Amino acid sequence: MQIDSTHPNKPSLVVSQYDAEGQSISYPLEMEEISVDPTFEAHPPYESCPPINQSMRFIVHEAATFIPYGDEENFPVMEYLDQFQSFAWEKDFDPDSEMIQIETIRRLTNKHKMSINQIERIRIFPKLLRETYNEGLLWERFQRDFLRWPGGTEDDIEEACEEPAVDDLRARLSSVLATFCPNLNCLRTLCTTHPHPQSGSFGGGRPEVTNQSMRLSEGWPCGEECFRLSDESFVDKVHWENKSDLETLKIILSISPNLFPCQLADLCFKPCREVFVQRSSIFPDHMVYDDGPAGDDGPAGIRNNKTKRKAQKPRLIFEEKNDHSKFVPLEPCNHKGPCEKERCECCRRKRHCQLACRCGTRCDRQYRGCECKRCTFNCPCIENRRECLPGICEKCDARGATDHPCANTKLQRNDAKAVEIRRAKYGLGAFAAQDMEPDDFIGDYVGRMLAISDIEILDPVIKYNGRNYFFEFSKENVDEMLDAGPIGNATRFLNHTTAELANCVAQILLVNGEHHIGFYTTKAVACGEELLLCYGDTYWLADKGDENHQAIEGAD
Ligand SMILES: C[S@@+](CC[C@H](N)C(=O)[O-])C[C@H]1O[C@@H](n2cnc3c(N)ncnc32)[C@H](O)[C@@H]1O
Predict the structure, then answer these.
(1) This prediction's pTM
(2) Which atom belonging to ligand 1 lies closest to the Cα atom of 44?
(3) Which residue in 126, 154, 327, 341 has its CB near the most CB atoms, within 10 A?
(4) What are phi and psi of 509, to 5 degrees?
(5) DSSP letter assigned to residue 463
(6) 29 C-beta neighbours (distance < 10 Å), count
(7) In this predicted complex, what is the ipTM?
(8) Helix axes 261-268, 272-282, angle to 10 degrees
(9) Which residues have C-beta within 8 Å of that of residue 212, sequence separation ≥ 6?
């Protein structure tokens, strides 16, 4: 672009073309002036926000990952950067050295046929190759695009990670467990949100259900060949010729030793009664009796356990008033046998065990779900602010097997109404894109989970742009907050109004062992109406000079 000295107010564009010798020819480009419609309004400002379907944990304070509003003069960039010790890109990471190490692994595996474990043992690298399922050189390499290495092909790197053979079920399952998060809500690879001690291992342990108690358990036969319909005389008639069938069953049992024969039959493609006989020889009943002290009630069964427990102490779990609105993340317990005070966080914090806890079916603290046919306000799950659990709350159809699944499972099924984001009175806003009934689900408020100390660091950013996406879980838990500023979904656009005018509310619910913030309508909302939430009394205090960190209040 050049300024034409004869018309200084009229910029003109001059194009220069160069030939191979560096000679150029320049010529002006005709420019047409387009006048902007004076009614045209600029788009409301907004933060770029990659969509996510699940909240993520973030640590902000260690190093500055980027400079916000770096090219805007009014942003107090030095005040912001002073709070960090370093820049993330200054950290001790040398891509060249990583590349050399990965290339070495590739050659050792491909040319010298060494396994990853053998390479690990010779300790030639500064870092372990597989420290845990989400740490180590190989894991780190997959976090970024790999620079091409002359003489090496990128595809070979995949081989260095030892893709298990197609028919090697055990190895394939191990590698899947090392890659996929075992959390029921999470389908992401190499998840860092739910680091889990059991990741990457089978760890099914010993069975806790005897074959006899399976036989005596409640339930309908799964078909004509169900184990429930066969007797002892059938035992001698079962011979599996193909050894790999038995191996498959053993592998499945090593992951999940308490699966019922009807479920195993589906997984093994074998008749249920044959699977039962094989299971009985792999796990004879004495294995269960020998495991831990023999109580009066003998070994527990998955289903008959429910009835026994009822007779002993009905609704034990619901008698304790657990307040799940206080967000305290609880690691799944990792011990054999029922939870006991001395050894278990579930007891110490008066929480139900999570699905991922390994205390087994005998544990009293395991949540047993509800037995309602239709979940209403006196449903124990709703009372305890939980969504019903597929596979546990079966009568209400939490599993969603019919056309009318339980209404208390909307969040986990993402049964959300359509929302449109557009210009509103205060920046952007969320509008109903279809008619809505009271108690319809709008979405799961997701973002990054921040420690409160990190939130202070973001003060200059929020003061500067005037948009605050913090959500507090409860008044009691002031250590953590959710921030939908840099990552989130459409729920971050719900604007504030008074409690009387609001047509939506936020509910904190426990879903498959995790706390979620669901947004629901409180009244009928017509298509095109703005969805509005009451952020709570404290949210706007900052405007009145209060320097505390304000956030949308978690509903009780
Ligand atoms: C969670 S965001 C809501 C979405 C936001 N309007 C946007 O454009 O991204 C909260 C921010 O929206 C604005 N806001 C929401 N409701 C408001 C209201 N009733 N009055 C003034 N500003 C409001 C404020 O800037 C507030 O920090």
Answers:
(1) 0.62
(2) 8
(3) 327
(4) -130, 150
(5) H
(6) 9
(7) 0.99
(8) 110
(9) 285
